[in-house]
């Protein structure tokens, strides 16, 4: 369980995350939505100990993220931020293999190799395994990073806008993969998503933020309504139901 | 798996090439040392003496210093995450020279190990200052990073030379600024074994440095304490640079060119690339030194000058070739 208690983050007096308390049970796909600047990415970075918080606590299965050794957390929680600028010339396979570092410390076992092979296969990266990252397109590189994080095989997987740079085909495949990872392996996947319809179709739970606070949370049928969408984004939307899934139309 | 399918056997092959260069280096010089004179009864004594006291230490020093400086460049590039830094474009070397000069001024009797320690501390402080400045400067282009380092180095050098000029130490400062192996004798190069040991430490921590090269966030995600890895790397780079400067003077460009060439071919996974960087560094220094001894025989061109000429040409080529890629 991820337990966030009254977390606040200030930058030079500007409050970006404002006293957020949130408790996310283990298992399933959870989407964080909200307008630009609502504090989603900041909250995700705080939960994953990449950013220090100004006040409050975050616990992962009872482990305080600010005091638990980094290598212990790295076997329990993984995080991928957006915009991963890497100057290193690593091959896709090297990068994915580094996902096993928290477990193997660089000495790959057969089990590690199995994880690497699976991650490459799930993300359709086998033909690119030997290519250098700087020779790939943005979408291919994004898939390689996600493969690294999945290869880390942690209980909790946090991803900031994982669909960035992905075309429709790969975005759908990615969301299906997250769904499957949660259902078959019992993982907890927390995503920051911009596309509320992907959030609607694939999440067990949606958390909506505005101005640094959590304003709504619940299953898609509670969140994907014209009222909530208006409250969160300030736009008029129609919501259609199609084959049991709720789709918001907000294009006009 | 790699884009250039180099079989593993090429590493021993490269090592053999370096061995041949080293052997050649043993037999180049004013004094007549050859297999014939070594085994010939009459001249045995003198030839053997020259070989053991001068030629062998010089060759070992070339290999050790070359490997260590190239690896220092690689480390700095991974830690700063910029392709164009090396100890002489990050304020490291200039600060080490400042330290050497201050020791000569204030404690001229200090043993060489103590001098190196002071120079290491200065190098560490200078590199730390460089990193602190980088945090304050908006980095619009990857080229700004080495420019900042070169400017910082310029300021430190100006301070060094001002004091040295006043105190009549300019000659010593010039010796540290320009790498030269002609004065290497038995008993005057052993400090370099320390830098070889530091290179070994870098190899043992190669995975951690590779991860650190992916940035703080990725490193933290993988459970690596980025600050500790950074500190370890900077200590290795500072001590290596200080040891090389104290022994034979600065060898410019080496830490820049060798890691960039190896990166193009082998990539940046340091476990695989570090042995190549070390070997190629040793090879390039050996080749430059041999060339410097042959060009105006029986005189010598110091290696600092040879590397400056060959290195800047190679560097320009890399710069133009990689262009947008390099950041």
Automatic annotation (TrEMBL), chain A:
<keyword id="KW-0813">Transport</keyword>
<dbReference type="InterPro" id="IPR003593">
    <property type="entry name" value="AAA+_ATPase"/>
</dbReference>
<dbReference type="InterPro" id="IPR003439">
    <property type="entry name" value="ABC_transporter-like_ATP-bd"/>
</dbReference>
<dbReference type="InterPro" id="IPR051535">
    <property type="entry name" value="Siderophore_ABC-ATPase"/>
</dbReference>
<dbReference type="Pfam" id="PF00005">
    <property type="entry name" value="ABC_tran"/>
</dbReference>
<dbReference type="GO" id="GO:0016887">
    <property type="term" value="F:ATP hydrolysis activity"/>
</dbReference>
<dbReference type="GO" id="GO:0006826">
    <property type="term" value="P:iron ion transport"/>
</dbReference>
<keyword id="KW-0410">Iron transport</keyword>
<keyword id="KW-0406">Ion transport</keyword>
<keyword id="KW-0472">Membrane</keyword>
<comment type="similarity">
    <text>Belongs to the ABC transporter superfamily.</text>
</comment>
<dbReference type="InterPro" id="IPR017871">
    <property type="entry name" value="ABC_transporter-like_CS"/>
</dbReference>
<keyword id="KW-0547">Nucleotide-binding</keyword>
<keyword id="KW-1003">Cell membrane</keyword>
<feature type="domain" description="ABC transporter">
    <location>
        <begin position="2"/>
        <end position="236"/>
    </location>
</feature>
<keyword id="KW-0067">ATP-binding</keyword>
<dbReference type="InterPro" id="IPR027417">
    <property type="entry name" value="P-loop_NTPase"/>
</dbReference>
<dbReference type="GO" id="GO:0005886">
    <property type="term" value="C:plasma membrane"/>
</dbReference>
<protein>
    <submittedName>
        <fullName>Iron complex transport system ATP-binding protein</fullName>
    </submittedName>
</protein>
<keyword id="KW-0408">Iron</keyword>
<dbReference type="GO" id="GO:0005524">
    <property type="term" value="F:ATP binding"/>
</dbReference>
From TrEMBL, chain B:
<dbReference type="GO" id="GO:0022857">
    <property type="term" value="F:transmembrane transporter activity"/>
</dbReference>
<feature type="transmembrane region" description="Helical">
    <location>
        <begin position="303"/>
        <end position="320"/>
    </location>
</feature>
<dbReference type="GO" id="GO:0005886">
    <property type="term" value="C:plasma membrane"/>
</dbReference>
<feature type="transmembrane region" description="Helical">
    <location>
        <begin position="60"/>
        <end position="80"/>
    </location>
</feature>
<protein>
    <submittedName>
        <fullName>Iron complex transport system permease protein</fullName>
    </submittedName>
</protein>
<feature type="transmembrane region" description="Helical">
    <location>
        <begin position="143"/>
        <end position="165"/>
    </location>
</feature>
<dbReference type="Pfam" id="PF01032">
    <property type="entry name" value="FecCD"/>
</dbReference>
<keyword id="KW-0812">Transmembrane</keyword>
<dbReference type="GO" id="GO:0033214">
    <property type="term" value="P:siderophore-iron import into cell"/>
</dbReference>
<feature type="transmembrane region" description="Helical">
    <location>
        <begin position="116"/>
        <end position="134"/>
    </location>
</feature>
<keyword id="KW-1133">Transmembrane helix</keyword>
<comment type="similarity">
    <text>Belongs to the binding-protein-dependent transport system permease family. FecCD subfamily.</text>
</comment>
<keyword id="KW-1003">Cell membrane</keyword>
<dbReference type="InterPro" id="IPR037294">
    <property type="entry name" value="ABC_BtuC-like"/>
</dbReference>
<dbReference type="InterPro" id="IPR000522">
    <property type="entry name" value="ABC_transptr_permease_BtuC"/>
</dbReference>
<feature type="transmembrane region" description="Helical">
    <location>
        <begin position="274"/>
        <end position="296"/>
    </location>
</feature>
<feature type="transmembrane region" description="Helical">
    <location>
        <begin position="185"/>
        <end position="206"/>
    </location>
</feature>
<keyword id="KW-0813">Transport</keyword>
<keyword id="KW-0472">Membrane</keyword>
<feature type="transmembrane region" description="Helical">
    <location>
        <begin position="229"/>
        <end position="254"/>
    </location>
</feature>
């Amino acid at each position: 369980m991820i337990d966030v208690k009254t977390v606040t983050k200030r930058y030079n007096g500007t409050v970006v995350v404002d006293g957020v308390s949130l408790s996310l049970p283990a298992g399933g796909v959870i989407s964080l939505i909200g307008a630009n600047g609502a504090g989603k990415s900041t909250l995700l970075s705080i939960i994953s100990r990449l950013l220090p918080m100004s006040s409050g606590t975050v616990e992962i299965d009872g482990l305080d993220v600010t005091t638990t050794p980094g290598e212990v957390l790295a076997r329990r929680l993984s995080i991928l931020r957006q915009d991963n600028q890497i100057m290193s010339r690593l091959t896709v396979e090297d990068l994915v293999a580094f996902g096993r570092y928290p477990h193997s410390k660089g000495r790959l076992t057969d089990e590690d190799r199995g994880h690497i092979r699976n991650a490459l296969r799930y993300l359709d990266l086998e033909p690119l395994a030997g290519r250098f990252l700087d020779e790939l397109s943005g979408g291919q590189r994004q898939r390689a990073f996600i493969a690294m994080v999945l290869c880390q095989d942690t209980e909790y997987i946090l991803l900031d806008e994982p669909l960035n740079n992905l075309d429709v085909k790969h975005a759908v495949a990615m969301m299906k993969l997250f769904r499957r990872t949660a259902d078959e392996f019992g993982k907890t996947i927390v995503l920051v998503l911009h596309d509320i319809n992907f959030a609607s179709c694939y999440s067990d739970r949606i958390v909506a933020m505005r101005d640094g606070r959590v304003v709504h949370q619940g299953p898609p049928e509670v969140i994907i309504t014209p009222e909530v969408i208006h409250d969160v984004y300030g736009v008029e939307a129609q919501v259609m139901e199609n084959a049991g899934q709720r789709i918001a139309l907000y294009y006009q | 798996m790699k884009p250039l399918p180099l079989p593993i056997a090429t590493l021993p092959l490269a090592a053999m090439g370096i061995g041949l260069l080293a052997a050649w280096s043993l037999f180049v010089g004013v004094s007549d040392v050859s297999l014939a004179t070594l085994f010939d009864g009459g001249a045995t004594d003198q030839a053997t003496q020259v070989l053991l006291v001068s030629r062998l230490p010089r060759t070992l020093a070339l290999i050790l210093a070359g490997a260590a400086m190239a690896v220092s460049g690689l480390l700095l590039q991974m830690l700063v995450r910029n392709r164009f830094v090396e100890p002489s474009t990050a304020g490291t070397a200039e600060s080490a020279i400042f330290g050497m000069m201050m020791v000569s001024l204030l404690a001229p009797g200090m043993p060489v190990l103590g001098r190196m320690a002071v120079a290491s501390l200065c190098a560490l402080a200078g590199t730390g200052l460089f990193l602190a400045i980088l945090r304050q400067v908006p980095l619009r282009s990857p080229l700004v990073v080495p420019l900042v380092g070169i400017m910082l180095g310029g300021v430190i050098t100006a301070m060094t030379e001002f004091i040295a000029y006043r105190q009549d130490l300019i000659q010593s400062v010039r010796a540290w600024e320009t790498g030269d192996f002609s004065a290497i004798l038995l008993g005057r190069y052993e400090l370099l074994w320390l830098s070889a040991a530091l290179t070994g430490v870098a190899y043992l921590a190669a995975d951690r440095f590779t991860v650190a090269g992916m940035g703080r966030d990725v490193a933290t995600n993988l459970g690596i304490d980025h600050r500790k890895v950074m500190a370890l790397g900077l200590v290795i780079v500072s001590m290596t640079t200080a040891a090389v400067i104290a022994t034979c003077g600065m060898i410019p460009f080496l830490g820049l060119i060798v890691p960039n060439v190896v990166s193009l071919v082998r990539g940046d996974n340091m476990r695989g690339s570090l042995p190549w960087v070390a070997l190629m560094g040793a090879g390039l220094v050996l080749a430059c030194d041999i060339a410097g001894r042959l060009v105006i025989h029986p005189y010598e061109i110091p290696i600092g000058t040879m590397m400056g000429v060959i290195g800047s040409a190679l560097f320009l080529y890399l710069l133009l070739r990689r262009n947008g890629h390099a950041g």
